[in-house]
Amino acid sequence: MSEIRSDYHFCTLAPGDISAVLKIEQQVYAHPWTRGNFIDSLNAGHAMCGLRDTHQELIGYFLAMLVVDEVHLLNLAVCAEQQGRGLSRLLMGRLCTYAREQEAESILLEVRVGNARAIQVYQHYGFAEIGRRKAYYLAKDNTREDAIVMRMTL
Questions:
Q1: Whole-angstrom Cα distance, residue 83 to residue 77?
Q2: By the 8 A CB rule, do 49 and 93 touch?
Q3: Contacts of 10 (CB under 8 A, 6+ apart)
Q4: According to the 3-state scheme, what is the secondary structure of 18-72?
Q5: How many CA atoms lie within 13 A of 117 on its CB side?
Q6: CA 100 to chain centre
Q7: Looking at residue 154, what DSSP letter applies?
Q8: Average pLDDT, stretch 125-144?
Q9: What pLDDT does 139 receive?
Q10: Does position 63 have pLDDT exceeding 50, yes or no?
Q11: What is the pLDDT of residue 73?
Q12: Sheet with 106-112, edge to edge strand ranges
């Protein structure tokens, strides 16, 4: 994957990167994916792209699955200390490039209804709500939270 700026670069992640991914995942999500979730995704051939800084530290990533003519964003995160610097938008830009390289017609994702920051980033890229999944995510105190299903046409 290509360079974006001299202070950050994208890379393809592999099983040896999962510990660094888990460190971010557990830091930023109340209900993080497990090591097994990431291994299963890699074994299934899903794209896993990382964002590294000049010290080669992993500071963000996304996982995406190609399904026929659509890319489904499965997971995206930026480490807590780097949030608010536009890095999610860099990752989204790379996701869009990846989807176009795969000749996808659209990108689909689910996002928690309470994740206003992510929703704003997705809307910035042209994603629009196309539906809701009731009680999709595990939430606090054994409750469930709805997901907004969003799609962007490429």
A1: 9
A2: no
A3: 1, 2, 3, 4, 49, 50, 51, 52, 94
A4: HHHHHHHHHHHCCCCCCHHHHHHHHHCCCEEEEEEECCCCEEEEEEEEEECCEEE
A5: 11
A6: 16
A7: -
A8: 92
A9: 85
A10: yes
A11: 98
A12: 3-5, 8-12, 47-53, 58-67, 70-78, 106-112, 144-153, 128-138
Which residue shows structure tokens 């964002």?
51
In this structure, what token pair is assigned to residue 24? 């971010």
DSSP-assigned beta bridge partners for residue 71: 66, 107
- Mean pLDDT, rounded, of the chain: 93
Q: Distance (Å, rounded) from C-alpha 153 to C-alpha 103? A: 12
User: Which pair of structure tokens corresponds to residue 152?
Assistant: 């962007």
Structure tokens at 38: 């990431």
* Residue 66 one-letter amino acid: L
Q: Name the token pair of 93.
A: 């830009």
